Amino acid sequence: MSFHDIRFPTEISMGAQGGPERRTEVVTLGSGYEERNSRWADSRRSFNAGYGVRSIDDLHAVINFFEERRGRLYGFRWRDHTDWKSCAPGEVVSPLDQVIGTGDGTKASFQLTKTYGAAFAPWTRQVTKPVAGSVMVAVDGVAQSEGDDFLADPLNGSIFFQPSSVPGNGAQITAGFEFDVPVRFDADQLEINLQGFHAGAIPSIPIVEIRL
Question: Is residue 63 within a helix (H) or strand (E), and if so which, with residue range?
Fold first, then answer.
């Protein structure tokens, strides 16, 4: 899939509106009871970047970014300012934040993930666009050194342990990280009315998460 490893301007995405979406079919039976079925195993995030545009310079930056992405053709990174760390946004990232696997003595590759919820039906999200240099890893609570013990791929979220540091059988692997959401523009045309913009109208700049 065509993807440019560059982040949408964060000063504009800070003011965007949006969040996760799920698809659930609800059938109401004649008895009044319901049957519910989830069509998507994973949620999908969408945003309107227009809410973050505050000036003509912001509009120019979006147009420049849009043209280089060729509209919907190329994906890019997006900072979701409500959910961009392995921990809560106001907390400090720790290598103990998320459990990403259990060692078997031979497996050297693990995928970064983030788990939401705990007691009832936790959902695990694959993290495919970690921020380079932000990934921390621990094995059984002992912090590992990036480079000496493991390598983190910022393009797909994979963790590779060096041959001398492969986790032993039953060892718990945890990680902490910052991450972006892979997205694309959800329109091939930006409809911008400068007269309306000066009057306070919000331009529509739809952004939607993509699967990689």
Answer: helix 56-68
